[in-house]
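Standup notes
- HV: blocked on the assembly model, inputs below
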Amino acid sequence: MTVAVKFFASLKEQLGCDGATVEIGEVATAADVWLQASGGKAMPGNVLVAINMEYSGQNATVHDGDEVAFFPPVTGG
Amino acid sequence: MKIEVRAAALDPWREVADYEQAQTALHGAAGAAAVFVGSMRDLNEGDAISAMTLEHYPGMTEKHLAKICTAAADRWDLLDTLVVHRVGELHPADPIVLVAVWSAHRKDAFEACRHIMEDLKSNAPFWKKEQLQSGHRWVEKNTAGY
């Protein structure tokens, strides 16, 4: 299946890209998507995950066509 | 209810006045308006800050702000809510965020305004990058509001 990956803020700078399209096996979690999209880097402990623009856990299952975003703690306002 | 993420300059007081004037349903019904404006400071963690860049997650940010405001409207008796948040480059004293809430009585307006602001700070996907004399740095966490 195919998922769209997005990275934001400091994570985008650390990884050197704002996202990617990832081909991954039919059964995968957000953490699996991270590993593939980041080239096998360990996920920093404070990273937040959103699937289709809703907060989600790292162990949540992703589906074909999902948008999976990874970003650091938010600092708006 | 109006939610906006804006790259252009924000004048929160004009925004509130214009919105209130346009929402005729508020006229006579709103006994209370609570307004929070957050602006950029020129100092953070002991360092002078000359500018700041605010990044967001287009789509999710607006969706999440709407969710926060809808949840507040379920919890309190509100007549209307207006949230405008800046993105892009800001300078000291520039307004960053406006939260305005109208209700019949002050309790609902005060409490909902505070709640929306705190939820926004904790959960809405925005990120600040500060410009210091020595370079850039990402803000890693917000100060506690309660």
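- HV (later): unblocked. Chain A touches chain B through 16 residues (CB under 8 Å). Helices of chain A lie at 9-15, 30-37.
- Next: hand off to the docking folks.
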